[in-house]
Amino acid sequence: MSGNTFGSLFSVTTFGESHGAALGCVIDGCPAGTPIDKEIIARDLARRRPGGNAPAGCVAPASTTRRESDEPEILSGVFEGKTLGTPIAIIIRNHDHHSGDYDALRDVYRPGHADWTWETKFGIRDYRGGGRSSGRETVGRVAAGAVAKSFLSQYGVVIQAWSSSIAGIAAPAPGDPSFSLAQAENNALRMPVSSGSFEEVLAKIERIRLEGDSAGGVVACVVRGVPPGLGEPVFDKLDARLAQSMLSVGAAKGVEFGAGFASADGQGSLLNDIPVPYQSNLTEISPPPPALPRGVPPVSFKTNNAGGILGGISNGMPLEFRVAFKPVPSISKKQATVDRTGSIRELIVKGRHDVCIVPRAVPVVEAMTALVLADMFLLQWKNREGN
Amino acid sequence: MSGNTFGSLFSVTTFGESHGAALGCVIDGCPAGTPIDKEIIARDLARRRPGGNAPAGCVAPASTTRRESDEPEILSGVFEGKTLGTPIAIIIRNHDHHSGDYDALRDVYRPGHADWTWETKFGIRDYRGGGRSSGRETVGRVAAGAVAKSFLSQYGVVIQAWSSSIAGIAAPAPGDPSFSLAQAENNALRMPVSSGSFEEVLAKIERIRLEGDSAGGVVACVVRGVPPGLGEPVFDKLDARLAQSMLSVGAAKGVEFGAGFASADGQGSLLNDIPVPYQSNLTEISPPPPALPRGVPPVSFKTNNAGGILGGISNGMPLEFRVAFKPVPSISKKQATVDRTGSIRELIVKGRHDVCIVPRAVPVVEAMTALVLADMFLLQWKNREGN
Amino acid sequence: MSGNTFGSLFSVTTFGESHGAALGCVIDGCPAGTPIDKEIIARDLARRRPGGNAPAGCVAPASTTRRESDEPEILSGVFEGKTLGTPIAIIIRNHDHHSGDYDALRDVYRPGHADWTWETKFGIRDYRGGGRSSGRETVGRVAAGAVAKSFLSQYGVVIQAWSSSIAGIAAPAPGDPSFSLAQAENNALRMPVSSGSFEEVLAKIERIRLEGDSAGGVVACVVRGVPPGLGEPVFDKLDARLAQSMLSVGAAKGVEFGAGFASADGQGSLLNDIPVPYQSNLTEISPPPPALPRGVPPVSFKTNNAGGILGGISNGMPLEFRVAFKPVPSISKKQATVDRTGSIRELIVKGRHDVCIVPRAVPVVEAMTALVLADMFLLQWKNREGN
Amino acid sequence: MSGNTFGSLFSVTTFGESHGAALGCVIDGCPAGTPIDKEIIARDLARRRPGGNAPAGCVAPASTTRRESDEPEILSGVFEGKTLGTPIAIIIRNHDHHSGDYDALRDVYRPGHADWTWETKFGIRDYRGGGRSSGRETVGRVAAGAVAKSFLSQYGVVIQAWSSSIAGIAAPAPGDPSFSLAQAENNALRMPVSSGSFEEVLAKIERIRLEGDSAGGVVACVVRGVPPGLGEPVFDKLDARLAQSMLSVGAAKGVEFGAGFASADGQGSLLNDIPVPYQSNLTEISPPPPALPRGVPPVSFKTNNAGGILGGISNGMPLEFRVAFKPVPSISKKQATVDRTGSIRELIVKGRHDVCIVPRAVPVVEAMTALVLADMFLLQWKNREGN
To answer: Which of B156, B301, D35, D282 could form an SS bridge with B273, CB 3.0 to 4.6 Å?
Structure first.
């Protein structure tokens, strides 16, 4: 209720400031007996780190050079490699403190940042790197998301996000011959391509960096293996909760599902996804047809304009959605702003900052998706006798 | 937790099926002493009704001809015109039952509807008009939203939504000379114009109607008078909760705040809203500068690319966001589908259906906005000693 | 969150003032397909009514003579006799308004009542019969509890409460030869006896009535057929939630489980319930041994000092607990009090009031028990794959 | 929702197993700017430790000899000695692992413990000292409670609990000449006496210890300085939430408020607390008369049979309640039980165990009380405009 807990049955509470002692999360409700591998958590944390996915010998130009080991420590809830059904606390200590960099920001409000709104809300502000309004806050989300992914993987759910657009340059879309999701994790920008537009984007990012400016982009996400029936009408519909989870990520400014905003311009006869008898080969990972309530026939859909969600409930097709991220507000160009006395000031934000956080937002989008889905699995189980 | 309650402190639980005895809501947490006028509730319910806002002598072509009196009855929580601090139950009875129309749908799943997913989830389905998956479900939201608006109006909050795009034809945007929000409530499509594009849209809607097809559109919403400091980081940020609330509305497929998806293509130096000393004349309704915590200077912003939200917290600028709605899935064109035996069937959806629900979605978007904001007011109050 | 919703998955929101238009409840999360019979709801409402269970020709002396038809109307969530998985709204209209009786109380605070605390909290008070602080508020609980009982009865859960002590005179306890639970529903005081102490209690109640005074008592409750494994450590333990539910009933002043307060004086060697291999005949209704997780042996216990709960989790033995109710605060004896000007006043509470509400609290205790257990069933189901 | 979070606005999530890496808590919703002193947290943790309050040279006979340093580490949410309004994570590492002691318990269910019910619920069990069903779980509660006490102390709220009965021997009650709350913290049993019954209890505890048995007792709690108006009708009444919080503590078997179970035997004319114009000297700490809503007169009560709560809302009088604790189930006497194969076994529980945990339960009762009250403060603030 106070904003730092997400999810109702599979829930996570995150904590931690950018330059405090540690960040972390407590996951409550993960069913007992779920296998948990610390390395899986560490791997997703590494994906979130700046420069973490750069090809050998190359520093990802979209990332800062700040490095954190981001080693997770599991404090509770796991015994002999399995969850106990008790809360799973995970902490990640902060090591790379250069709080001194931030002294200059003590009395000034950075444009595009939460500095002033945060202080307006709480009457106090941790000026060291934005405190909890920093992007580093997502560390706890990613750790929790890795646990949720471990839970979901038991049921064949596979979540994959990628950079679908960076700095105004769109990557190929699914269905395009050059689209290759397998490549997304192999390049520094997490674009689903092996070549071509990639260099163009790198060049544009580098140009923006040299200008002291920053770029935004769009993260796309596809989830395969989602059984039909997930989502809790009418306020906790699957898309409603995913939308909340995505907009809760810093710098996110919009989300759309399936045909999204484009569907507003179309007509029903073209956008309605026509049901057909169930075909297992419609999705790449081909889960077996799910156990359905008695009397309900297995169904697939000819198209997926709905993005896998009808009436707020999953329909067995892949979930598809996109999240827009604004450019990083910390730029080294000179900007006007206001200080704590209410006077106008000029500001150049120092320190190492990402030019574009979109590639690093990819594991965050996946983590939030996993947390929503794990919760929705349990919420659906509550509807059936489970013993 | 079971999906039919929204909000944590100012919360609403809605109930009711399209063709059941009644629909309604229970509002809990509305502070005692709030003036409640039943006519205000009835007025917003009328705005949601089909044909309700057609100019005299004109039947709104985007609306069905089904009429409901939609008279609200307040059962509890209000005494001598003021709230008691106890739950406010409001019911709206259903009168216009033609359940017989729906017998043909008993064993078939309508494309684009929640019929199959609902039955997959619950193992049972109210086939009479979609039951609770019907758009009529929003009646309870609108009644509750009217109460939330009454609460908010005490603090100078004014919420206004309109059709910003219908059937692919965009209305003028705020700032455009022909944009007139005052006109939106005076026309059958709730577009912010007095003439011009209006006829073009009516013609297109009529053409789509004659084809037996349907159209979608976009609802835009602006909220003035929101004090800075609303929103609960990190998961219940103001935009996160608004996004949940909007995607919880049937047919919504996307939401964006401020510069939205366009901001993904821009650069930080252009999108950062520059803070300036507080100027009361930046917004139309000019609330007095809000009471801020000690030491925090009053601030305005030169631009509003953020849509009034920074770091998930309101910044005192008008909230601005847009919601995309897909075309109505019920079309009279012949479609293929699947029936309960799993066999392919042809279907023509009979009955009177909206060609485009966008104008009717306007009060629903306002209602959900009001519910989010009322909750956020109370959540912010909890942070301060109130006695 | 605002106090009028109880339960997390099987939840109920109640509403209504003593002299408003109607009282009622919205039940959310009741699994789809649960058979609902309106008569079962009406029957429990009748059990809550004053005088409702008096033997023919006898007016229950512990009850008021005010009569209400208390006819429930189901507005939503039930279709063709079964729940839809959507919210179930039930209303009970108020008919017997004699608000005039209460005008005398408009400016005075009745001793032992919530008048002053309520006004302190909300700054406003519905003085007509206490408004929502009236015992009539329990109507919504009882209606919701009847739905919960219907759900639970599918799993063999049987809840029975009775008056175990009235006006200081204890009824025979379970195990006592004269204890007869079958008799409890057949007499006006709901004591588990066919004769004897009954007349003594009636006489004492009558004497207290003539004095213009009131009496309290204890309600005992036994639940058979509860499977082991219910309860959510560590804060939502089964006993913790039952304790909350019981103390949420007006006039309740204490609750104890199993050996209760007496266990504080005993020693571990005598109070530990010794586990033994499962014996189906330990409880009257003998449910089949429950499905247990793999590797967990079925177990019974030689004694039940724990009241069926170990570590906050049900152990398969009958739940046993007792709730203490203070005497009715409305008495016709003259009392001193304070009025709204802060001055001392003398007060004689007029109108018809129960001398002792303990027999009428019996169905309320059962209802709250049913609501807790239904919620705990669903919360336990969430732990297991349900498809 | 999954049981390890308590409170709605001032909430705590606890985590940790008895023999895991660490225990701890995350407190969310503590208002920004609250002064937090790590030493205050450490002090309450020390009060919970075995032997922690023994007079010099004396080992408390009611305590185990196991020692833990129980040093709290604050990971987040506090900056320069004040809360930031962000989650406060506190961990306490486990040092004194003798897990080997527990290998003998791996396949056997201890009578009176949660071993079997826990495994029934989760299908898995941490057999090392009971895992999270251990009394050590309360470490997180006490740490969080210390933060809540720091918050409450700003408003003059003082919480004090003591052992009111141990092993069947009652301490003097408030009002008794020999009652001395000041003494409670100075002796090893936390009884409110300087001499007399103390030696008798020590002797009885020693005799029980020599028998290999264990004892229970009652903890009483008084809270002064609680403003009127706290508590959220109808399900989150102040007593309802306190009852939940108390029964959520291991070994608690009952709770009563004010006159409690005794009130069931009395009559209304004697039990009604008569309101009188406000007198500041009614309570020891004499807070100034609270700010009341306009038109509500300040009131005190001649007696406190209600225990400071009327209609579920605080009335400004001291809160008074008592919690019964059963004897420690771990005894060194030989007991019969059942093992994992379902066979009968004899068991002698080895290791060092408390003979009576009542003195150590005192700070836990205080902590839970503080958590409830802090939440209720914020829930009441939400009712009023706070800016």
So the answer is: B301
Q: What is the pLDDT of residue B60?
A: 46
User: Is cis: bond before D234, omega within 30 of 0?
Assistant: yes
**What dihedral angle (degrees, nearest 10) is formed by the CA atoms of A96, A100, A101, A102?**
110
Q: Which chain B residues have a beta carbon less than 8 Å from that of D384?
A: 31, 381, 386-387
pLDDT of D183 higher than 60: yes
- The neighbour count for residue C383, using CB atoms within 10 Å, is 26
Query: Coil, helix or strand for A306?
Result: coil
Cα(D234)–Cα(D321) distance, integer angstroms: 20
Contact at 8 Å (CB) between B120 and A309? no
| Mean pLDDT score, C14-24 | 96
Strand, helix or coil for residue B188: coil
Residue A48 in tokens:
């979130």
Residue B53: the pLDDT is: 42
B311 contacts in chain A (CB < 8 Å):
113-114, 117-118, 133, 250
| DSSP structure class, residue B312 | T
Which has the closest alpha carbon to D5: A371, C234, A39? C234
Maximum Cα–Cα distance across chain A? 69
> Phi and psi dihedrals of C166, rounded to 5?
-135, 130
Q: List chain A residues with CB under 8 Å of D124.
A: 32-33, 79, 82, 84-85
CB count in 10 Å sphere of residue C25: 31
Mean pLDDT of A158-185: 93
Q: Which chains would you list as touching B if contact means 3+ CB atom pairs under 8 Å?
A: A, C, D
Pairing of strands A169-170, A82-83: unpaired
Question: Does the bond joining C12 to the residue before it have cis omega, within 30 degrees of 0?
Answer: no
Two tokens, residue C175? 């195990």
CA distance B382 to A121: 11
Give the whole-angstrom CA distance, residue D106 versus residue D103: 5
Tokens of B359: 């104008």
**Distance between CA atoms of B232 and C145, rounded to whole angstroms?**
35
Tell me phi and psi for residue C310, to 5 degrees.
-125, 125
* Residue D304 token pair: 């406190």
**CB distance A33–D124 less than 8 Å?**
yes
Residue B341 burial (CB count, 10 A): 10
- Please, what sign has the CA dihedral across residues D94, D96, D100, D106? negative
Interface test with B, best of C1, C93, C387 (most B CBs within 10 A): C1
Find the CB nearest D114 among C252, C310, C336. C310
Q: What percent of chain C has pLDDT over 90?
A: 76
pLDDT at A96: 66
ipTM for the predicted complex comes to 0.95
- Per-residue confidence (pLDDT) for residue C387, from 0 to 100: 36
| pLDDT confidence of residue A288 | 57
**Helix, strand, coil abundance in chain A, percent, nearest 5:** 30, 20, 50
Cα diameter, chain C:
69
**Which DSSP string corresponds to C162-206?**
EEEEETTEEPPPTTSTT--HHHHTTSTT--S-SSTHHHHHHHHHH
d(CA A312, CA B34) in angstroms, rounded, equals 33
Residue A379, pLDDT score: 95
Q: Could you give the C-alpha distances from C25 to C140, C142, D114, in angstroms and in order?
A: 5, 9, 35
* pLDDT of B108 strictly over 50: yes
- Flag whether pLDDT at A307 surpasses 80: yes
Percent pLDDT > 70 in chain A is 89
Task: List alpha helices for C258-353, DSSP H.
Answer: 260-263, 268-271
